[in-house]
Amino acid sequence: RRPHPLEREGVGLEQAVREEMERLAPVREIADKVIDTSSFSIHDLRRIIQRKWNSTLERLHTIKVNLISFGFKYGVPREADLVFDLRFLPNPYFVEELRPQTGKESAIAEYVFSEPLGKEFKKRLIDFLSFLLPLYDAEGRYRITIALGCTGGKHRSVAMTEALMRALKRQDYTVSVEHRHMELG
Fold first, then answer.
1. Closest CA to 106 of 167, 178, 158
2. Residues 173, 129: Cα–Cα separation, whole Å
3. How far apart are CA 69 and CA 156, in angstroms?
4. Which long-range contacts (C-beta less than 8 Å, at least 24 apart) are formed by 41-49?
5. What CA–CA distances, in Å, run from 100 to 40, 150, 182?
6. Fewest Cβ atoms nearer than 10 Å: which of 9, 166, 173, 185?
7. 73 vs 152: CA distance, rounded Å
8. How far is residue 100's CA from residue 120's CA, in Å, rounded to a whole number?
9. Ramachandran angles phi, psi of 174, nearest 5°
10. Contact 67, 146 (CB under 8 A)
């Protein structure tokens, strides 16, 4: 599907593969393990490599977690694999002194998670992801995008995204965060 890195003008795929084999012959001679990938998909190869070196990476997860906070009024992120609607949580927007703040600030997180519902949902969501992510990881999934939405994407979704980021990092996941609509909310 993609051009071979050694292909160049006038050299076709077969010649590029032969040249690659010649260049890598010294490496192959000293290799401890050679894997014939002729019939492998990229997913098969990933699984073989992960199985081989999994014991050295006991605590390191290979799956990358991308968290996105967003506002439903601006649209759900199309790239999301999982979407959680947080509009049932207490809304700081309706508290005048909290309205200008964002979910990155402790006052908002305290407001959202001070009620039993907020605390319980956060705990259950972290527990659910702690159960689910290793299953995706074991299947060879290398990335998952989790979107968390509230009405405007400024308070509840941001606070929950920040809490999830901290929890997942404590579990040794590589986590990236995007607050897509925080400045618009």
1. 158
2. 11
3. 9
4. 43/140, 46/140, 46/142, 47/140
5. 53, 16, 11
6. 9
7. 6
8. 26
9. -85, 120
10. yes
What pLDDT was estimated at residue 73?
A: 95
Residue 185 is predicted with a pLDDT of 60
**Beta strand pairing status for 82-85 and 64-71?**
unpaired
| Cα–Cα distance, 38 to 51 (Å, whole number) | 19
Using one digit for the tens of pLDDT, what is the confidence trace for 33-46? Answer: 888 888 888 777 77
Instruction: Kindly report the pTM of this predicted structure.
Output: 0.70
What pLDDT score does 58 carry? 52
Please report, to the nearest 10 degrees, the dihedral formed by the alpha carbons of residues 152, 88, 178, 135 taken in order. Answer: -160
Instruction: Tell me what pLDDT residue 106 has.
Output: 94
pLDDT of residue 40: 83
Query: Which residues of the chain register pLDDT less than 70?
Result: 1, 9, 50, 53-60, 185
Tally of residues, the chain: 185
Strands 82-85 and 143-150: parallel
The CA distance from 43 to 31, in Å, is 22
